[in-house]
Amino acid sequence: MRQSDAADAVDHVDFDDNRLVAEISGGHDEHLAILEDALGVRIDPRGNRFAITGEASARRRAVAALGDLYARAMRGEPVSVAEARAAARLAGSAAPGPSASPAAALKTAGPAIKTPKRVITARTPNQAAYLEKLGRHDLTFGVGPAGTGKTYLAVAHAVGLLLGGAVERIILSRPALEAGERIGFLPGDVKEKVDPFLQPLYDALHDMMHGDYVERRIAAGDIEIAPIAFMRGRTLARSAIILDEAQNATPAQMKMFLTRLGDGAHMAVTGDPTQTDLPSGEVSGLADALSVLSGVDGVAEARFTGADVVRHPLVARIIGAYDARDQGRGQGLGRGLGRGRRQ
Predict the structure, then answer these.
(1) Where are the beta strands (DSSP E) in 118-274?
(2) pLDDT tens, N- to C-terminus, the chain (343 residues)
(3) Fewer Cβ within 10 Å of end Cβ, the chain: N or C?
(4) What are the DSSP E strand ranges found in the chain?
């Protein structure tokens, strides 16, 4: 790739592979339109050359975003609307200097995790920071609203550790229904009772690995998915452990779960403290743990906001609307602010 920075507010970027240029542009140039809207530039494709018009800082970000997409295509990774939005977010949140390049911009995406079905990379700067913390710390909290990739990236990290031989098994857990685990009224055996509440974890695994492989690893005990109540009394060594929906754990359950950590284990705890299903007035174990463990060596915390939502773009706007409504209510709601059952 070659870039020229002209004085007339136009940058020209040349790519070598015309086939990949068409892929990063998207059908009817829809990927370029996403970059234009997000970064405030105009991008005119001319064969294998892109002419980028706009302010200098915006042009540099657009160059970085195009380089990100081109690098993904060169690695054989799919370049879709979602990747275009991710490249725009990563480039838009960075502050590249005059020497900014796509290679430098790619460093902001954090580590890439290769799984049998896809290569998983961060789509926002906070996701990149989260992946880096997962790799450096034995216990990492991922905290923020729905749709920000907290659980998905934690599962991806765990899958990468398992396939790379760094751990011997993956253990995925959630509070089932309410923190009190009141699931006895449901029909079926224990597995049939709890599986509906653990389905998002199954979904993440199947998105990264082929279904028959997942089932074989589950049957062999290399992947275990169970409610938090089943963790009591165990020591989880050489494992990648994830507690999802941790806001629905009580402080006692949270302490029990965190102290299961054994030698060679890595643990991720994810949740949204504003979406607890605990009875009114009861403290969330996630909020309690974040307070108690703040500053403890070996413990990291990654925070997400509505800007990190990577589902449909409307999800971010929905979250923003609810947040604005809740903030507008002021102090009148007291402790009930933001609570409610997750949909």
Answers:
(1) 119-120, 139-143, 169-174, 223-227, 239-243, 266-271
(2) 555 554 448 888 888 888 888 899 999 899 999 999 989 999 999 888 999 999 988 999 899 889 888 888 887 778 888 888 888 887 866 554 444 444 444 444 557 898 999 888 888 889 989 999 999 999 999 999 888 999 999 999 999 999 999 999 999 998 875 434 455 555 665 566 667 777 888 999 999 999 999 999 999 999 998 889 889 899 999 999 999 999 999 999 999 999 999 999 999 999 998 888 888 888 999 999 999 999 999 999 999 988 788 777 777 778 778 878 877 765 444 444 344 434 3
(3) C
(4) 2-5, 10-14, 42-46, 49-53, 113-114, 119-120, 139-143, 169-174, 223-227, 239-243, 266-271, 299-303
Query: What's the pTM?
Result: 0.73
Number of Cβ atoms within 10 Å of the Cβ of 65: 31
How many Cβ atoms from other residues are within 10 Å of residue 59's Cβ?
26
Angle at 206 between CA 114 and CA 110, to 5 degrees: 30
14 pairs with which residues across the strands?
Answer: 2, 49
> Distance (Å, rounded) from C-alpha 321 to C-alpha 29?
30
Residue 189: partners with Cβ closer than 8 Å, 6 or more residues away: none
Q: Which helix (H) or strand (E) holds 64?
A: helix 56-74
CB atoms within 10 A of CB 189: 7
In terms of Cβ atoms closer than 10 Å to its own Cβ (0-12, 13-18, 19+), residue 318 is middle
Tokens 């690098």 correspond to what residue? Answer: 71
| Token duo for residue 267 | 């643990």
DSSP character at residue 99: T
Distances (CA, A) of 9 to 4, 34, 43, 156, 167: 11, 20, 12, 41, 52
